[in-house]
Every structure is written in structure tokens, then in C-alpha cells.
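EI: anyone free to look at a 487-residue chain?
SC: sure, send it
EI:
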Amino acid sequence: MVKASGQNQTRKVLFLGNSYTYVNDLPYIISELAASVGDVLVYDSHLIGGYTLEDHFASTVSLNKIRSQNWDYIILQEQSQRPAFIIPSGFMNGFNNLTTFIKSNKPCAQVMSFMTWGYKNGDTQNCSANPAVCTYDGMQTQLTNRYVSMSDLFESEITPVGVVWKHIRENYPSIELYQADGSHPSVAGSYLAACCFYATIFRKNPGQISNNYGLDANTASIIRNVAKTLVFDQMEQWYIGRYVPVSDFDYVIGTGHNEIKINRNETTYRNSFIWDFGDGTTATDRTPTHSYSADGTYTIRLTSYKCFLGQNIESVFERTVNFCAHTNTIYPNLLLCPDETGTLWTQPADSYQWYDETSPINGATNQSLQVEPGRAYRVLTTVNGCSEMSSPMLVDSYMNIEDCRLRLPENKVVEATIFPNPVKDILTIRTNKTLQEISVYDMTGKRITVNQVSPYAYDVSGILNGMYFLRISLENGSYVSTKFIKE
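SC: here you go
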């Protein structure tokens, strides 16, 4: 999160709200206070008395104003009572619809919520149905909590006017923040809101403001200093600068030649990203697959971008991958009962390190490894000083199939090979015996129908992605049980 200081700033801001914003012309006050520090607020607004966020979403005027410029910020201010309702569904719906529309039409604009203040004597209109708002303190607590939760949910920053309002009211009661109706802001109340907005929009200390806007110097100074302490000094609490991209990813070794598959891209708060695979090729898919033409060590770089305040904010994350002349694999393709163990092997190498998922297994430095079903294993092997990680091998087990009834005695098992595995469309069976039929079962033991397209090939394109058990019936009553992955 960046706090600006020293240099002058220009911000383009759209205000969508109601009388809490247009009384005393809050946007104009903000612009005047900013000018006293050498900053410029370019603004527009659509402010109708009693308007809700749902009203703004239904308003072509509001939607056209959102589209009209490349705004830095779009301020959303809900009707004064709605966020404090027992079930604030209207507030949520309006906030959701507007933020979704903004992201679709102006993705570089940052949404900011205008946290308002409680009524001077509580919300008497809704008190009987909602006792929490019968007092100012209760109503303010509801407003604060709801604005924070909505902003967190919909990636909005917050200008916490209500928090500063509460502090001034409790500690400086001689400063009258309300008009006579106990709801709308006095000039002091609007000045307070303007100081808060200056801090969040420009990310600057409101203590620098020199314009008292008609207030006595002491009152204006008190308000500015409280806004500094509760807003500027605590901007992370109000999500100011929170929504910046953070790149993060992981990959696995694929089954193709020198192939990697991005299996996890958890980059946050980005408008776009680009992959650089370190061999002169790039991609913009979320989870791409890439094959390297030559052995070697490559740096995979993910750069994420988010546009904000006319600039592209970048986040870079890198991982390295190494492909050696040797290509290590794990075998056999085990299918075990839940209480069984088995042994995995890899090709001879100078050294070995086995991994459980992504973590090295202590002491697992031999060519073979005793394994359990239901877990995935990889092995890092080194030959002539070059180390390479294998593709993961999932050791599967029969699930919900009583007593592993698909398994057959060892003396009835003969060799057969299936390929490709994983498979997308056509599964081929290679065996030196005559193939009689196959039976395919899902992980629950339900038999699945597949179409035979040749004596040794079956079309599996119509079944769902996942793991399947395969029983191959051969001549002379022989069987082979194995598994395959449909992707």
C-alpha cells in the first residue's frame, strides 16, 4: 500500500449517493480542501434524496456516468438506514450489482464505499422491529460492521466517515456534526467527511489541509487530526491499497516430452497476466501447459497486472524447472485395496529423493519406495549432476467396492497395457492375448458403458473426467485389473 506525499495529485472521482453527499456539496468541499494542498479533484456526481444503491443501478443516468470517464474512484453511498437493517439484502444487492457493473465497464476504477453515520438519537422508525438501531451507538455499530463486510466481500476500499464521526461525537461533544433533523450533516459534519475522503482518495495526511472552510481554526484542526489518526494512519484497516495483484502459481511435470502443466494459479486482484516460460514463448491462459524443445533449466515467470490511477501495477512470481537428458518415470501403475501397501520404482540414477505430493519424504533416498493408497508421489533423480523431477504417480485404491471384489487372484493376472493414460477420447489396449471384453467402473463401483470402436480400442470421450477402474477380460478366463484417468 502506497501513501503519497510531496507530489501533487489529480484524482477523477464519481460520487453516487443521496442527500448525505449533496447537502453542503461534499464533493466541492473535498476539492477545496485538496486545492489547499496543491491537489486536484475532478469529479461528477448523481445525488438524489433518499436514493438507494439499487436505485442507482436502475438509473440510466448513474450507469451512463459510470461509463462516461476513466474514473480513478467511484464512491458508493447507500441510503442512511438500509445497511443497519436486520437483513440488509437491498444494500447487498445494490452493492453487488453496481460493483459488478463497474468491473465490467470500468475495470481500472477502484470502488470505494462511503461509510455513513448513525442518526443522532438512533433510528426510531425501525427501532421496534430492529432493537439494535434504537440508539446512536447501536445504529453506528451496525453501519460500521455492514460497510466493512460489504467492502471486504466486493473488493471495495472504505472511507470510514462514521468511525471518525463517532470519535468526535464522544470526545468533542461541543462540535455539532448534525443539522437540526439529527440526520443530515452540519458544515462541520461535511468538513469531517471531506477530510476523511481527502485521506483515502489522495492517500495523504489530512493534517496538511490549510482550508478551514468557515469553521473556527480549533474545530477544523481537531477534525483534521482525528481523520489523520483514524483514517490516514490506519488505511490498511480500511482496505486502502489492499487490492493489488499478488502473483502465485505451482506446476507439475506432464506426461509429454519436457512438459509442464500449471496446476495452480492463485494470483489475486489482477486485470490480466502473462506467462514467460523462459524459452522465448509466452501465454495468457490461466493454467497453461507447455513443452520445452530442449533439455535445460528454465525460469517460469508469471507477471500479473492491475490498472489503477492511470498506471499498471505489476506483480512477478517465478519458479524454475529442469529437464535433463534422462527422463525419470515412476512405475508400476498401482491399484491397491485400502489396507494394502505397494512398491514404486524408478529408473537407475546416481541419487534419489522421493516426495509425498510436494514435500520431500525424510529418508526416502532409494530407487524404490513403499507406498500407501490414496496418495500421490514424485521422485527427484540425479544423473551426471543433472536433477529432474518425475511426473506425479497417484497410488489409487478401490473405494466403496466391498472386499475389493474387482481384484482377482494373482495366478489369473496377465500382462496388458493401456494407452494413452490419461486419455481424452480413444483408449487402446495392447495385449498378446485375445481380448474378450472390458468392464469400466467409476470410483463408487458403478459400471460405466463405453463404445468399442475397434477390436482393441474404446471411445471414452462421453464419460466424465476422473479416475476409473478397468477390468480386461481375456481368453482362457484371464483378467487384468487396472485404472485410467479420463481428462
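EI: The longest strand covers residues 296-308.
SC: 👍
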